[in-house]
């Protein structure tokens, strides 16, 4: 019969969790170490985040994510957000103190992210229901990472409405404009650019508002289906012709 120190203990080998030792003696040592000095401590609360909140209207995921990483990187919280293996989950039975501290830090990271998202959007998306800050961040990236045609158009409009003044804020304004222009053009193809220009041109005639909404909805549906370029300027042209001919004005000769 093997000695107590040689009796094997089954290890689940979960890459997201702290692996269990192979012997009962080692398990006792793990528990004793956790009692004396847990290998995970509760992190100090981060300072307030002063940058703009993440929102669909601002379409600012890239900037927000970078600022958040810079803000939380030195505090230790970003390691809970960036993936689910940098800090493995302690064993609840053999490392109860470390596990409790892990949960405290993980929850703090999740709540900090949610607190810096547009509150109406966070509530609507039920972001607090996510089980971990990493899962939450992955979902945020999926939701906000690609701005979509409607938000891209809004960003384009904001870019075109910016005019520089030769004052102390000019360089900051220029840098913000370049960042906004980058976000507006993110993942944009030539086809999308042409379609958005077409949609923008429909923005001043109120009689075209319904057709404009129809185009944006169709572009969004194509993007959701993973076929962004399947909706083309020709589709917009057809809608304009149909709308014009149905409005009672002189038909357009094709």
Automatic annotation (TrEMBL):
Region span, Disordered: 1-21
Recorded superkingdom: Eukaryota
Protein name, as recorded: Uncharacterized protein
Organism: Panaeolus cyanescens
Taxonomic lineage of the native organism: Eukaryota, Fungi, Dikarya, Basidiomycota, Agaricomycotina
């Amino acid at each position: 019969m093997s000695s107590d120190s040689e009796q094997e203990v089954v290890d689940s080998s979960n890459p997201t969790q702290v692996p269990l030792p192979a012997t009962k003696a080692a398990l006792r040592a793990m528990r004793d170490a956790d009692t004396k000095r847990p290998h995970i401590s509760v992190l100090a609360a981060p300072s307030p985040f002063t940058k703009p909140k993440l929102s669909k209207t601002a379409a600012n995921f890239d900037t927000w994510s970078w600022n958040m990483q810079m803000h939380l990187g030195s505090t230790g919280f970003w390691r809970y957000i960036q993936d689910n293996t940098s800090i493995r989950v302690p064993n609840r039975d053999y490392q109860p103190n470390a596990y409790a501290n892990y949960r405290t830090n993980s929850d703090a990271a999740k709540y900090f992210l949610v607190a810096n998202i547009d509150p109406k959007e966070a509530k609507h998306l039920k972001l607090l229901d996510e089980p971990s800050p990493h899962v939450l961040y992955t979902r945020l990236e999926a939701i906000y990472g690609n701005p979509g045609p409607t938000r891209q158009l809004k960003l384009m409009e904001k870019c075109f409405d910016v005019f520089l003044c030769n004052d102390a804020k000019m360089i900051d304004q220029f840098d913000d404009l370049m960042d906004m222009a980058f976000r507006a053009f993110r993942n944009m193809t030539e086809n999308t650019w042409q379609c958005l220009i077409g949609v923008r041109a429909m923005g001043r005639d109120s009689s075209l508002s319904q057709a404009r909404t129809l185009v944006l909805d169709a572009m969004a549906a194509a993007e959701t289906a993973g076929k962004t370029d399947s909706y083309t300027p020709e589709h917009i042209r057809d809608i304009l012709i149909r709308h014009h001919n149905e409005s009672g004005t002189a038909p357009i000769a094709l």
